[in-house]
Write a structure and sequence with these properties.
This protein has four helices and five strands. The chain is globular. A five-stranded mixed beta sheet has the order 2-1-3-4-5. The protein has one domain: Cytidine Deaminase, domain 2, CATH 3.40.140. It is α+β, with helices and mostly antiparallel strands. The chain binds 2'-deoxyuridine and zinc ion. Zinc ion binds next to helix 2 and helix 3. This is Cytidine deaminase. Its EC number is 3.5.4.5.
């Protein structure tokens, strides 16, 4: 991933904060998912009065892509904070990490946590999901 691509992902993720629907937590999250074909899929968190149907920004982005037939991904950028203020890095929750395990190579997929355009950290999925369970674990031998 080039520095230009990283910058584009951060900018795109930040732009999604405007769409985040968070009347309950007021914690806004934006995501930008880079597919291997070069397309970027966006996502925001979408809350619900019944709370548990809430969908995280990361899963919104992954499900949008998969629903369009895209299943190969290179990286995701995540930004978030109270009222959309990027006070800290926003790591993906456990459910989103598990969804990433389904479609992304743990040793290759990159997770960019950003606080701003020049303030970001990059992790591999494997680092955030050590000993993770994925499709390979169901393979018969
Ligand atoms: O990585 C994360 C963590 C939290 N949230 C959302 C869920 C909920 O709407 C709000 C507070 O948990 O932030 C995300 O979208 N992604
Ligand atoms: Zn999540």
């Amino acid at each position: 991933m080039s520095e230009t691509q990283i910058q584009e992902l951060i900018e795109t993720a930040i732009a999604q904060l405007a769409f985040s629907y968070t009347p309950y937590s007021h914690f806004k999250v934006g995501a930008a998912l880079l597919a291997k074909n070069g397309q970027i899929y966006t996502g925001c968190n979408i809350e619900n009065a019944a709370y548990t149907p809430t969908n995280c920004a990361e899963r919104t982005a992954v499900f949008k892509a998969v629903s369009e037939g895209i299943r190969e991904f290179e990286a995701i950028c995540i930004v978030g904070g109270p009222d959309g203020e990027l006070l800290d890095y926003t790591p993906p929750c456990g459910v989103c990490r598990q969804v990433m395990m389904e479609f992304c190579h743990p040793d290759e997929f990159q997770i960019i946590l950003a606080k701003g355009k020049d303030d970001y950290r990059i992790y591999k999925l494997k680092d955030l999901m050590p000993q993770g369970f994925g499709p390979g674990n169901l393979e018969e031998r």
